[in-house]
Amino acid sequence: MDKEEAWKEIERLRDFDNAITEEIQSDIAYYRTLFANVIMVGSPTEDWVLIDTGLKKYRDRILHACKERYGEKPPLAILLTHGHFDHIGSAKALAKYWNVPIFMHEKELPYATGKAAYMPCDPTVGGGVSLMSVFFPTKPEHLGDLVTALPSDGTIPCLPEWRYIETPGHTAGHISFFREKDKLLVAGDAVATEKSESSLSIFFPFQRLHGPPAYFTEDWYLAEESVKRLAALQPDTIIAGHGLPMQGEFMKEELQQLADHFAQQAVPKHKRH
Ligand SMILES: [Zn+2]
Ligand SMILES: [Zn+2]
Question: What is the mean pLDDT of the chain?
Answer without folding.
Answer: 88
